[in-house]
Amino acid sequence: MDFxxxxxxxxxxxxxxxxxVKSGDWVDYGWCTNHPVALDRALAARKDELTDVxxxxxxxxxMPEIAKAEDAGDHFTxxxxxxxxxxxxxxxxxxxxxxPMRYSELPRFYRENLEVDVAMLQVTPMDQHGNxxxxxxxxxxxxxxxxxxxxxxEVNRNLPWANGLSGSxxxxxxxxxxxxxxxxxxxxxxxxxxxxxxxxxxxDLVVPEIPNGACLQLGIGGMPNTIGAMIAQxxxxxxxxxxEMYVDAFVDLARAGKITGTYKNxxxxxxxxxxxxxxxxxxxxIDHNPEVMAAPVDYTNDVHVIAQLDxxxxxxxxxxxxxxxxxxxxxxxxxxxxxxxxxxxxVMGAYLSQGGKSFICLSSTxxxxxxxxxxxxxxxxxxxxxxxxPRSAVHYLVTEYGMVNLKGASTWERAEKxxxxxxxxxxxxxxxxxxxxxxxRRSCKR
Length: 446
Hints:
- It contains 15 helices and 25 strands.
- By secondary structure, it is α/β, with parallel strands linked by helices.
- It folds into two domains: 18-180, 3-Layer(aba) Sandwich (Glutaconate Coenzyme A-transferase); 197-436, 3-Layer(aba) Sandwich (Glutaconate Coenzyme A-transferase), CATH 3.40.1080.20.
- The strands form six sheets. Strands 1-10-8-6-2-3-4-5 form an eight-stranded parallel β-sheet. An eight-stranded mixed β-sheet has the order 14-13-12-11-15-20-24-25, sandwiched between helices. The chain has a three-stranded mixed β-sheet with strand order 17-16-23, with no helix packed on it.
- Helix 10 (280-286) links the parallel strand 13 (271-276) and strand 14 (292-294).
- The chain is globular and about 80 Å long.
């Protein structure tokens, strides 16, 4: 097979490639750093020719051109698999919507439930075997492309090449059009600034609970990154990685010599992830690095796979939680913030792991736009808030005021434990609320 000749035959301009999109089509943009740039701009230029074009994406890192025009919603509808700040802005325009999911199920959604008329996404340059690499994400992309009637790849020389378990490449034979993009820098995601005193206090409680040889999953955000930084400075050794999102903290851990993967029951010696986003440091580290391995999300986030990894440690954030132990990591009332992602899968999988633990970490309070300090521990979740982790699944809860284990605890024990890690200024009111809810014993300690 002469791959270069085939490449030249399929090479075209962005303007010509997007002619494949028709009114009423479902168009997929891929995931996170793979979203198209030149193709998105070309599709936006066709706005007035099109109606009812439904576009899917997720963890959006920059505002797509198709969403910028004032009347964009008359032509395009944005459907997000996971809400980033950009996705929230698109939703605020009245043209963006969230698709609820457990991230581990996304590949199956494509195999069984979804139609894809046109798929367009950024990829690395083609190799000598005719393969384009998906770069930072394996995620669900192979299954998405299997369903696509038309596949357009946009080459970006700045995307890192990621070694993959499977589902991390597509061959030129399976592509309809190739577009050579403008090679923009890969979008970067910061670590959220310097750790706060609260972040450090939570990390001080969690890190001692991590044993040597543990397998780590870190969520995104200040607290997980702070915990990663403290692990890098600790005496822990021979750690493994099996995570949904690969973040900068893992690079720091690897460079500190903490990650070997020696004791992983699966993928020994490899850091496994579904997708990655961070700074250039992370992208340089992933590029052609045999120590890291991209894998489809129905492998990385599969509860049964996670359960096979001994001493699995899952560390994630939350927006708030209630006295029953229900965790919301997705919304502030009706305002959508994030998504279920893989949090529930990792909470369940870690508990099923031999010696495994899951930690939901949050600050005890937050300050609203009006300057008012509010408790993140509430009697019941606000109307409209999403239950990400049901009370029956939650293991450890951590704030700067302590750590509690909810496994085996009755409703009054849960209330007592949860109130014990609330901010002291809110505890008396929470006790009164728990009493009114019938989950507080008179003999409970105050």
